[in-house]
Structure formats: structure tokens, C-alpha cells
Amino acid sequence: MTQPFRRETIYQSSHWSGVRLKLEEDRIEMTLPQLMHTLSSCVLPGGFSYANNIVNWKVPLHYNCTDPIADLEQQCANWGFNPSNTVGFITAAKLTHASIIEHEGDHFRLLCCTTVGTRNAARAGLPREVYSAYTAGTINTIVAIDGQMTQSAMVNAVITATEAKAAALQELAIVERISGEIATGTTTDAIAICVSQHSSWNAVHAYAGAATSIGCAIGEAVYKSVIEAGGTQDEV
Fold first, then answer.
1. What is the CA radius of gyration of the chain?
2. Which of 94-103, 122-131, 194-203 has the lowest mean pLDDT?
3. What would the pLDDT profile of 113-125 be if each residue is shown by its tens digit?
4. What is the DSSP secondary-structure string of 175-201?
């Protein structure tokens, strides 16, 4: 099992000094040893940025997401974080069932942390009723990498991670309620790729597809973490 928060409240990386995850009552806090070059689909801040804190905030099922940026900024202030260097996720999934996978490879090391809720599972590509409001569910994935990557490789990593997530949901036989088809995700998934860009690695990864050493590792980590967190989401 790689779900430390089912037993403990603090996880220290065994491969990467200074990387720590902590379970609080309403969030998982991830502390990184430096400002990381980050690409995320989160609303706070979204896109490319720099961050050394990542927060996965658990909200109630009835959460009214009229202004999630303001909500996250206020919560960061409450928790003592600077919103300008914090990536903020929102979820309704069980934080205790987060899955953490670590790997050391070809001029990099990585840590992947995923929380999974599939109440609003969906299959991309099918027509559906769409809406603006937040609906509880969400697969949130953090991939932190100690290594060097180009921006295009970071975007490529998002593709690889997303494909791995979809493959894991297929393995778990998670279906969307409307069509009964295998889901490829949920309607509110988010991801962050965080890279140290340490020049000491002396190797810049220009690609992150499944056939590359770093891409394969990202895919395996995301696949394993979604399988574990998703496969146990109904357990106590």
C-alpha cells in the first residue's frame, strides 16, 4: 500500500530531501524544497508559474464555486501560505485515500500524489448536458519532478499523465452514469507538473511521451496512483 494517510498524517519523501506532504483536517499540504517551475490546470494560479507549496483543499459536496480563486486565496491566507507561490486544488474526494508513488530514473526523480473521486465520472468525446457550476468529484494529480524539462516537455507530461489516468479508469471499469460507457476522467479533474530545473542533472528532457524514460515513469506513477486511490475510494 502507498496510501500513507490511512495510517499517518505526515509523509516524507524517501527519494527527495525536503519534500513533505501533510494531511490536515480539510487539506493535503505539499511542501517543496525550492520554487518549482510549474504547469497546472488549477485556477490558482493556472498555466505556467513558480510554486513551492501545493494544497489540495477538500470542500463539502454542496460547495458553491462562484469564485474559487478568491476562496483559495482566502484559504491560503488562513493557512499561512502566500497565494503567489502556491498551487491550489479543490476536491471532494477522500484525502485519507491519496496515493503516493515515487520513482528514480534517467536523470530525474519524481513523486506523484493523486486523490480520486469519481462521483461525476465522464467520458470525453460524448455529447452531454453542460453546466458552469462545480460538481463534487475530481481526480487531482500532482507530479513533482527533480530534473530539467523544457516547457513543451511539461505540456507533453500532461498528455501522458492524462492518458495514464484514462487507462487506469478503464482498468477499474469506472463508467459515467449517463451513457454507461467507460469514463476517461471526471468533469472537474486537475493536474500540476512541478519541475525543479536543477542544472546539476546536466540533462534536459525535451519530450515526455510514453516512449521516453521520464514519460514512461510519469505514466506508470499516475496509472498506479489512480488505480490505488480509485480502487479504494469506497473503503473506510
1. 17
2. 122-131
3. 999 999 888 899 9
4. B-TTT-PBPSEETT-EEEEEE---GGG
62 — pLDDT class (breaks 50, 70, 90): confident
Cβ pair 157, 195 in contact under 8 A = no
- C-alpha count within 13 angstroms, C-beta hemisphere, residue 42: 31
The residue type of 200 is: S
What are the chain's domains? 4-231 (3.60.70)
Q: How many angstroms separate the CA atoms of 200 and 217, rounded?
A: 20
Q: How far apart are CA 149 and CA 17, in angstroms?
A: 20
DSSP-derived pairing of the beta strands 148-149 and 204-205:
parallel
The helix-helix angle for 213-231 and 151-172 (nearest 10°) equals 40
Residue 6 grid cell: 490511512
pLDDT value of position 63: 82
Strand-pair category, 20-24 with 10-12: antiparallel
